[in-house]
Amino acid sequence: MCKFIQRQYSCRHLRFIAASWCVDYTVTHIRCPPNVAHFESVEDICGDCKLKMAPPAPWEHMIKRKNKQEGSSSSVEKD
Ligand SMILES: [Zn+2]
Ligand SMILES: [Zn+2]
């Protein structure tokens, strides 16, 4: 049986991380049912939540600037 680590993130999501593959897996490449050898909890959040909390993509910023350019005509008021 392959050994897995059950990791609990601060966002309360659980992940099974393969710690070591058994000989069966290296031959058949069929995953065994998760055999949790170790449990750990981390302060970090999982990858999915990181994606949700990630800052907006650079191109989103460019879209916003495009909108600003439309309103840039108001700068004519300076004259
Ligand atoms: Zn295995
Ligand atoms: Zn999460």
Question: What does the secondary structure layout of this molecule look like, with pairings?
Answer:
Elements lengths: L2 E6 L5 E7 L2 H6 L6 E7 L5 H7 L4 H14 L8
Parallel strand pairs: 1-3
Antiparallel strand pairs: 1-2
Bound molecules: zinc ion (ZN) (2 copies).
Explain this structure:
By secondary structure, the chain is of the alpha+beta class. Helix content is 34%, strand content 25%. The protein is elongated and about 75 Å long. The N and C termini lie far apart (77 Å). The mean pLDDT is 82. The structure holds zinc ion (ZN) (2 copies). One zinc ion (ZN) binds next to helix 1. Residues 70-79 have a biased composition (Polar residues). Residues 60-79 are annotated as: Disordered.
Structure summarized in a few sentences:
Residues 60-79 are annotated as: Disordered. The longest helix is centred in the C-terminal third of the chain and has 14 residues, at 58-71.
> Mind telling me the C-alpha Rg?
24 Å
Outline: elongated
Mean pLDDT: 82
Q: Which stretches of 5+ consecutive residues score pLDDT under 50? A: none
Q: Report the count of strand segments.
A: 3
